[in-house]
Design goal:
globular, 7 helices, 151 residues, CBS-domain, 3-stranded antiparallel β-sheet, alpha+beta, two-stranded antiparallel sheet
Amino acid sequence: MQTAADIMTTNVISVNPETEILRAVQLLLENRINGLPVIDDQGRLVGIVCQSDLIVQQKRVRVPSLFTLLDGYISLSSARHFEREVEKIAASQVRQAMTPNPASIAPETPVEEVATLMVEKNYHTLPVVSDGRLVGIVGKEDMLRTIMQEK
């Protein structure tokens, strides 16, 4: 049975939380990848920044809907969600746009479980972590290569 360690990319392109957004976009485009793990100075995974996290900068801000009740305003959406959306749109550094504490897998995770996560959770990129450190990454292309190996 194949595991994440068998198919993962070990030469991982990553960024740190202080990386500028334009540099992250450049890395994604130049390397034709969907996501960049965000690691701290000790090599620990602290987030992931994906194409969709950066595309949001082109999005129009939707002001939360409000209704009045007894001369007071009540928001129909979460104020924290609105704040997070505005923060991502205005981000200048990766830490402002990344998804913190992303889903990750261990090197011994079976390929079938990796595929299930990708399909059910719509993940395009899964960091591989061992002893708290980033050791690889599995993307959809890595998964597609397993199909070629089986034939």
